[in-house]
Amino acid sequence: MSTSLAAILYLISGILFILALRGLSSPETSRRGNFFGILGMITAIVVTFLSINILFNGLIYILIALALGGSLGSIIAYRIPMTAMPQLVAGFHSLVGLAAVFVALSAFYSPQFFGLGTPHNIKIASLIEMSLGASIGAITFTGSIIAFLKLQGLMSGTPIIFKGQHFINLLIGVGIVGVIFYLINNQNNNIFWLLIIASLLIGVLLIIPIGGADMPVVISMLNSYSGWAAAGIGFTLENTALIITGALVGSSGAILSYIMCKGMNRSFFNVILGGFGGNNLAEHDKKERKPVKSGNAEDAAFLMKNASSVIIVPGYGMAVAQAQHAIREMADNLKKNGVRVTYAIHPVAGRMPGHMNVLLAEANVPYDEVFELENINSDFANTDVAFVIGANDVTNPIAKTDPKSPIYGMPILDVEKSKSVLFVKRSLSPGYAGIDNELFYRDNTLMLFADAKKMTENIVKNLD
Amino acid sequence: MEVDPFIFRLSIFVLSIFVGYYVVWSVTPSLHTPLMSVTNAISSVIIVGAIIAASGLTSGAGFEFSNILGFFAIVLAAINIFGGFLVTQRMLQMYKKKKKSKNN
Q1: CA B45, B50, B51: angle at the middle one, nearest 5?
Q2: I need a surface site. Which of A25, A143, A374, A424 has the fewest CB within 10 A?
């Protein structure tokens, strides 16, 4: 295949990827979008096969590698429970990162495969591009592994902080830039490995100080990094499909990070520097406990059955307890009684962007009953019952009143404005931000102390 | 005077960032998780580089270090491609509209 024809086909593959993302603007067009994405990928792979010079023996190994990866990926995709989606995405990011490192290494050791010169005599532009691809890829790889371990619960979600942490990170960062400059004059294998090892290390150091509930930002950020790594490799290979895709994925991750930060009213740097959460716990415990009203499933069922409207506010606790199916059952039951039921989703609810929406969709909740914060917040004032399940900080009115609070200025769901609030929670413990929620102590709040799923199931029984 | 081809690629890159910016802002927040999984799948188009790495030949030599790296990179990228697109498909199948006959 001629190089020009291949280049045009790669461009088409890039356009198909743009259409894949465009499709996600609404659930109706999204499945067609995904089909475009698959088509773009097939185009890119077929074109590559047609443009390489290949011995028969080699082809077999390539097909084996494809089949092996493909079947592994398919099995994972079919088996993974929806609640594990955040860690799956983190795991997938790490693979993109590692693949970028491997391709960059291969280009460094055998530049002649890619038409970039001969070993230790690589074009300077290509060398910088592959160094950037390798470095960002390595950061994505280890960073995503730490994120995966935290999300999977194999590693504690509490931030790991030590003295001089930011200084060490800065030092390694500057070191990486220095190594890349050194490589330009001295294309030594060991120096390239040093670059990769330093990048692997900083990937770990960047993510360990970031707490569990800040993971939505971390995942989005790593998503962005995996894109920039792909773009770096794209420049090295002079491949349009890779450059376009890298830019798309890079900006997609960056926008998601921005949305998540805005959802917490914190700057990107505040999140990245880490150490948030868990600090104010001691102070909280000293405070005198005020009385709360606590109730049982029967009370909750009575209250909701006699309401004309209920808004359900799910949070990470719903995902942990896997309560989404029970919630949908409860909603169906209420609807039979003539109650209007809707769902309110805070942008940072859960552990990744859109986490709650996927879980509700899994439980067959129609997506047109699920609303984002800005579209539903004004409805709370005309609502009889707000049913908060597994969420806490995102409903805390202190975000509006106390400038000293760590969550001051964070947009919250105005559940306080509804006639009564039901909180399903295991205990009165504060949320991630480590602050007390004054809503617990209000007269129109009823606390339902139990596991989210068990409580919801009990409410369903009492509705019948 | 001829323009360095790098500048063309840089132009494509910069314009794609803008396209990405506008396209991603138009994605509905309820589909942000599928957005992440699909971007994951498409960024694995890096498999293109992996295939070139795996199929590279130096005359006479058997498999080289670079070829082996290429094979592993193909496996990793293929996991992502199949896994990413399939899991996205699985999620998107679940997003359903309210059935008018059933409710209210």
Answers
A1: 95
A2: A374
